[in-house]
Amino acid sequence: MSPSPSLVIVGAGPRATGLIERMAANAPELYAGSDLDIHLVDPHPPGAGRIWRQAQSPLLWMNSHAEDVTMFTDETVAMDGPVRPGPTLHEWAGIDGRTFAGRRVQGAYLGWVHEQAVAALPPGITVHHHPRRAVRVSGPRGGRQQVWLEGLTEPLTADLVVLALGHLDAEPDDEQRELAAYARTHGLTHLPPDFTADSDLSGLRPGEPVLVRGFGLAFVDLMVLLTEGRGGRHEGDTYVPSGREPVLYVGSRRGVPYHSKIGYGLDGERPPLPRFFGPPEIEELLARPGGFEFRRDVWPLVEKELGFAHYHRLFTAHPERTTVAWTDFEEKYAATTGPEERAALAAAAVPEPADRLDLAALDRPLQGVRYAGHEELQDGLRQYIEGDLTRRHDPGHSADLAVFLGLLSVYGQLVRLGDVGTSWHGFFNYMASGPPGPRLRQMLALSRAGLLRFVGADMTVHAEDGVFRASSPTVPGFHVEARALVEARLPEPTVARARDPLLRALHAEGVGETPDGLLRVDPVDGRILDPAGRPHPRRFALGPHTEVRAPGAFTRPRTGGPAFRQNDATARAALTLLRELGLDAAA
Predict the structure, then answer these.
(1) pLDDT at 69
(2) What pLDDT, on the 0 to 100 scale, is given for residue 420?
(3) What's the CATH number where 563 sits?
(4) Which of 181, 363, 472, 516 is spaced 20 to 30 A from 331 at the CA atom?
């Protein structure tokens, strides 16, 4: 008797759970009445995985409102499989939808979703969890694959393999290796890019300055763990220190924190998206004989799409702040061919500059700005953060929320183009994936307490004279020295530098990679591609290490969910192939 067909999924976090959920939804149509063994390979618990595991500080929050987090599909998802609705995080946990839940709560939700997905599989499909690390995949293109596990001499045999590895550690680049060597030589502390919850922060001493490069979500975690995590507490807008905190000197390329999460919901009409950047534009870009370049060919379309979302909302929800009818403005806006035309059109129809969309100014608010001294910068950035908080929690500026929806729409289209470079992902995260408002208020309290000091934009760090020295053109002539440097950002998800042994083995074998070092995959179903662009018949990959990255960690309900679409396509392709392999074996 031949063995049951088998599928090995490497990684047991949210992406793997989403894939299993889609397999359960599609199996009645594509795999009814047949046996199948699904092997989940991950040293961490299924569902939560590493990032959302229970064993982390209860001080760490999710970065989304509980009502904006779901693991279940709805009718807005463009997919071939059936919709299987389910509760959002706030419905499942019975908490206020505007709450920023702790990561432990999210981990519990993900564990429950995993259990539900497994229970929904039809009889004959069995899931086995292997709490180990996969180190290598071998096997011929046209034959069964072998997945080798750490510490075992016999591999798992698989008809198909799906890599759902999630976020991974990376080997340091040349700069980080040099800084680490300098730190060892001079007895300094250097923390490379990492997941802050996993970093050893014990070398950051109370009262001493610490240079921090990175002003995104990794920094927010660092800030929390080094303040509240060391016994301090927030009382209203005041921070009461424990005396165990270091002094954080933080800067980045932009020099400001990511924009606050928007603190209100959208009522009334949504912008009808996509409008200027949808399937027809994607098809045209993909059909270009010479390919496309993001900044030249894609960004102008993105910019026009986001402007449309902004002005649609402004004219329809706040018409008193405009001077012409929306229908007239829309007609002229559609006819514009460049940002200068659109800026002139907006200036003529929208009296207040604060109501016009200026993506360049939003992206680089400190561009060209100079402060006379370090204390003036502290005052200036506190005012900037306070202004951002006020605006992002004021429904009178609901055009900002429309732009957020536009960003989600754009991302949903961009996944079809594959690897579009790092600039888009950085811009998206800065605009749409910033910290909860309360975290920025805590940042202001720490600044007033003197425990958080802003360095400025285009921060540079030099290792010299036995210390780390940081400066920024935002404050000409100022610099700060420290014996500790933290790179507060996630490692780049490149195949070549991944510490994951399986990905490193694929790199050594010559798998297809993008110019930015991501795993090349078929954008339709996630099959891994070789350097010639040929899809592997038995290997798939989903997640941030691939060129088809989805926006954010989780899907917002009723936004089309590109990750859901990818999961569904991969699940259907896998079930179809497994069914055919089973039929061939039976014959």
Answers:
(1) 94
(2) 84
(3) 3.50.50.60
(4) 363
Per-residue buried b or exposed e for 109-147, using 16+ beta carbons within 10 Å of the residue's own CB: bbbbbbebbbeebeeebebeebeebbbbbebeeeebbbb
Give the span between the Cα atoms of 426 and 423, in whole angstroms: 5
Phi-psi region of 428 (alpha: psi -120 to 50; beta: other; left: phi over 0): alpha
- Phi/psi of residue 578, nearest 5 degrees: -65, -40
Contact at 8 Å (CB) between 533 and 41? no
Distance of CA 44 to the CA centre of its chain: 20
Enumerate residue ranges in the chain where pLDDT < 70.
1-2, 550-553, 583-587
User: Do strands 452-457 and 460-464 pair parallel, antiparallel, or not at all (unpaired)?
Assistant: unpaired
At 405 the three-state DSSP class reads: helix
Q: What tokens does 448 get?
A: 């007033």
Nearest Cα neighbor of 562 from 25, 183, 79, 56 is 79
CB 232 within 8 A of CB 447: no
Only one residue has tokens 């997945």, namely: 147
Residues 6+ apart with CB under 8 A from 71: 14, 17, 18, 21, 86, 109, 110, 113, 554, 555
% residues pLDDT > 70 (the chain): 98
Helix axes 217-226, 437-448, angle to 10 degrees: 50
Secondary structure string (H, E, C) spanning 42-103: CCCCCCCCCCCCCCCCCCCECCCCHHHCECCCCCCCCCCCCCCCCCEHHHHHCCCCCCCCEH
Task: Mention every residue, 6+ apart, whose C-beta is less than 8 A from residue 45.
Answer: 12, 53, 54, 107, 111
Which residues, in sequence order, are CB contacts of 280 under 8 Å at separation 6+? none
Residue 586's pLDDT is what? 56
Domain that holds residue 333: 279-433
Residue 477 within any structural domain of the chain? yes
- Could you give the 3-state DSSP secondary structure of residue 366? coil
Task: Give the per-residue SS3 of 255-295.
Answer: CCCCCCCCCCCCCCCCCCCCCCCCHHHHHHHHHCCCCCCHH
Tokens 């009818």, residue located: 325
Question: Which position has the token pair 């405009």?
Answer: 322
DSSP state of 368: T
Q: Are residues 295 and 368 in the same domain?
A: yes
User: Does the N-terminal peptide bond of residue 274 adopt cis geometry, omega within 30 degrees of 0?
Assistant: yes
Q: Which stretches of 142-246 are assigned E, i.e. beta strand?
A: 145-149, 156-158, 160-163, 189-191, 209-213, 233-235, 238-240
Q: Decide if 330 is inside a domain.
A: yes
